């Protein structure tokens, strides 16, 4: 049964939303966090395990150095302090997705603390989100509920694949985010996008949300307008696309507002997001940290960092995405709006590469934001996924500049290139699309057009030069658009003895 | 004075998914109580100058290079499974959980 909700506007008129996020990032290390089993997606179930990932008695886990370095890099990218001494703890819970009956995580001594992230909304507004901590832990196995249509309710049994058990995770926890107001859902989406962009840029995660590489738990609470005490929060678990994060936050704001308006308290609990109905439903009551009975992991010794190690990793950090955007915008000389459109269309990398391959910034933008975006929309893919290479764009532009094809033909050529007919030059050659620059052929075409339109020819002779347009049109038609319209016009006037 | 209540034991048993009868809860509460009392004497140790420590041996950074080593086959992994299906561990339906 659906919960009561208030409209978003009504909710915002009475309450200020406060957000908080826990984002889990799966690292793309070759092996797991605490053992040398492969960290791979989509393999045959239970083929990527060792006695450690299965939690067999007597095993000894050992920390993956690359995973630690990835965590330090992420901490640095988020402006965190890197802990001189960091420790692992056992988080105890009994559920078949963890064969050990505890998750090895970090509790009171996380690897990174006290950072912040500038999150840019679509219109360029920047929101600073405070990061409380980022800690290392391991993923759980994958459960498939059998019977009951794959849902947990009504399932008759479950199957467990431990390939994912022990895959390195970093959990990034924000402090409560106040003051987003009506932009809270948008900020939620932008925050997840920013984290995804950072881990991708650092090269520490594949960051594919559809594979669960980046998963977001979104906390929402409301405060009556003007109040200063945080309300009771709910945590919507595992919202796994950016669009869903935005919708789930919006939904929870509307639902909380209706509950509070009715005078009832918010129950502190986890909620499940359902993309099909676009609603959340009640999960379990949120366990106290006490219930997890955290204690230091006796089988793992502390991770100690020193300045030398941290500085070496800091030197390896790539340019931060936000800084890179500022630099590229200045280099390319695009307006605020032009650049934002490029970013939102997701073609910044493509434009950068196209310019590096030899096109001007203006030409690169013209193609990626124009014809390529149009074709992508038509074929229902992202422009970057259409399969157009920067080399193709540069070659098309060169053909135009050399006068071999015009803009209109170039667009046709691009379609043929996408249909695997070869490079732009090959398509032009094979399909005979080069501009008719053969003066003899053009001259004949003009003569024929003038002969077919004697009255128009007469008008032009009489000084009505603008009437030449009709003849140009006729010639273009006869040459299937492959003539240079300017040259055709010159020929017409020349033949009729009129000055242009 | 009892440090461990019957309710606390029941709560822990529930977290650990262990079914315990009334008699067992009473018995376990009494036994845990004795253990907690005994361990409580640790609190009397003069530790003002001792930094908190999670490990008895002063070691750190025991790290492994990120290199794949041969693990278990699916058959080996499932060898101890009480029940299996299609190369996966088969477990009873889990209700009222997420």
Features:
heterodimer, A: 500 residues, alpha+beta, Arc Repressor Mutant, subunit A, 3 domains, nine-stranded mixed β-sheet, three-stranded antiparallel β-sheet, 39% helix, B: 98 residues, Histone, subunit A, two-stranded antiparallel ribbon, 3 strands, 34% helix
Topology:
The complex is a heterodimer of chains A (500) and B (98).
Chain A: H1 8-14, E1 15-26, E2 63-64, H2 65-77, E3 81-82, E4 85-86, E5 89-92, E6 102-105, E7 112-120, E8 126-138, E9 142-146, E10 157-161, E11 168-174, H3 184-202, E12 214-224, E13 234-239, H4 242-261, E14 269-274, E15 279-285, E16 295-296, E17 303-304, H5 307-315, H6 321-332, H7 336-344, H8 348-357, H9 361-369, H10 371-378, H11 390-401, H12 407-418, H13 424-431, H14 439-452, H15 454-461, H16 468-478, H17 485-496
Parallel strand pairs in A: 13-14
Antiparallel strand pairs in A: 1-11, 1-12, 3-7, 4-17, 5-6, 5-16, 7-8, 8-11, 9-10, 12-13, 14-15
Helix pairs in contact in A: 1-4, 3-4, 8-9, 8-11, 9-10, 11-12, 14-16, 14-17, 16-17
Chain B: H1 6-15, H2 22-40, E1 63-64, H3 74-77, E2 84-85, E3 88-92
Antiparallel strand pairs in B: 2-3
Q: In total, how many beta strands of chain A? A: 17
Report Rg of chain A.
Answer: 31 Å
CATH architecture term of the domain at 1-45 in chain B: Orthogonal Bundle
CATH topology of the domain at 1-45 in chain B: Histone, subunit A
Number of strands of chain B: 3
Q: How many discrete domains of chain A?
A: 3
Instruction: Report low-confidence residues of chain A grouped into runs of 5 or more.
Output: none
> How far apart are the termini of chain A?
76 Å
The main β sheet of chain A shows up as: 9 strands, mixed
The order of strands across the largest sheet of chain B is 2-3
Secondary structure tally, helices of chain A: 17
Assembly category:
heterodimer
Uncertain stretches of chain B:
none
Category by helix and strand content of chain A? alpha+beta
Order of helices and strands of chain B: HHEHEE
Task: Name the shape of chain A in a single word.
Answer: elongated
**Could you tell me the mean pLDDT of chain A?**
91
């Amino acid at each position: 049964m659906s919960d009561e909700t208030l409209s978003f506007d009504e909710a915002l008129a009475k309450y200020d939303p406060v957000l908080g996020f826990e984002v889990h990032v799966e690292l793309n290390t070759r092996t797991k966090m605490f053992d040398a089993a492969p960290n791979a997606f989509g393999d045959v179930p239970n083929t990527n395990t060792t006695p450690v990932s299965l939690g067999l008695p007597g095993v000894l886990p050992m920390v993956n150095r690359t995973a630690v370095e990835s965590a330090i890099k992420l901490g640095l990218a988020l402006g965190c302090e890197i802990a001189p001494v960091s420790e692992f703890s056992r988080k105890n819970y009994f559920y078949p997705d963890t064969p050990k009956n505890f998750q090895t995580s970090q509790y009171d001594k996380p690897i990174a603390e006290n950072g912040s992230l500038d999150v840019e909304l679509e219109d360029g507004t920047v929101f600073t989100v405070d990061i409380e901590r980022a800690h290392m832990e391991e993923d759980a196995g994958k459960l498939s509920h059998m019977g009951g249509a794959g849902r947990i309710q009504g399932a008759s049994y479950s199957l467990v694949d431990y390939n994912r058990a022990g895959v390195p995770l970093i959990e990034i926890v924000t402090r409560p985010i106040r003051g987003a107001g009506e932009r809270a859902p948008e900020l939620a989406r932008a925050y997840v996008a920013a984290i995804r962009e950072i881990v991708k840029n650092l090269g520490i995660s594949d960051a594919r949300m559809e594979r669960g590489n980046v998963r977001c738990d979104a906390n929402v609470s409301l405060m009556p307008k003007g109040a200063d005490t945080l309300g009771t929060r709910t945590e919507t678990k595992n919202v796994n696309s950016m669009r869903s994060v935005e919708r789930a936050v919006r939904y929870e704001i509307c639902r909380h507002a209706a509950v509070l308006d009715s005078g009832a308290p918010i129950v502190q609990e986890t909620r499940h997001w359902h993309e099909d109905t676009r609603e959340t439903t009640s999960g379990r009551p949120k366990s106290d940290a006490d219930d997890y009975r955290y204690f230091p992991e006796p089988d793992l010794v502390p991770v100690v960092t020193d300045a030398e190690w941290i500085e070496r990793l800091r030197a390896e950090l790539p340019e931060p995405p936000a800084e890179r955007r500022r630099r590229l915008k200045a280099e390319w000389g695009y307006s605020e709006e032009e650049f934002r459109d490029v970013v939102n269309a997701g073609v910044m990398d493509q434009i950068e590469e196209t310019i590096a391959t030899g096109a001007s910034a203006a030409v690169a933008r013209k193609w990626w934001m124009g014809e390529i975006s149009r074709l992508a929309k038509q074929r229902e893919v992202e422009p970057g996924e259409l399969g157009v290479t920067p080399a193709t764009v540069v070659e098309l532009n060169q053909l135009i500049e050399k006068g071999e094809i015009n803009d209109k033909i170039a667009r046709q050529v691009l379609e043929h290139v996408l249909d695997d007919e070869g490079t732009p030059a090959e398509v032009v050659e094979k399909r005979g699309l080069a501009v008719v620059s053969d003066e003899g052929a053009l001259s004949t075409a003009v003569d024929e057009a003038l002969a077919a339109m004697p009255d128009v020819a007469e008008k032009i002779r009489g000084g009505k030069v603008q009437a030449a347009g009709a003849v140009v049109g006729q010639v273009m038609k006869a040459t299937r658009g492959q003539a240079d319209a300017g040259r055709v016009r010159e020929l017409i006037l020349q033949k009729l003895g009129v000055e242009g | 004075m009892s440090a461990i209540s019957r309710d606390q034991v029941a709560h822990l048993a529930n977290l650990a998914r262990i079914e315990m009868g009334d008699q067992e809860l009473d018995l376990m509460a009494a036994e845990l109580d004795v253990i907690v009392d005994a361990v409580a004497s640790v609190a009397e140790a003069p530790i003002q100058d001792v930094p908190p420590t999670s490990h008895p041996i002063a070691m750190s950074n025991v790290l492994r290079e990120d290199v794949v080593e041969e693990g278990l086959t699916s058959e080996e992994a499932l060898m101890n499974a009480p029940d299996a299906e299609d190369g996966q561990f088969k477990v009873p339906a889990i209700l009222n959980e997420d």
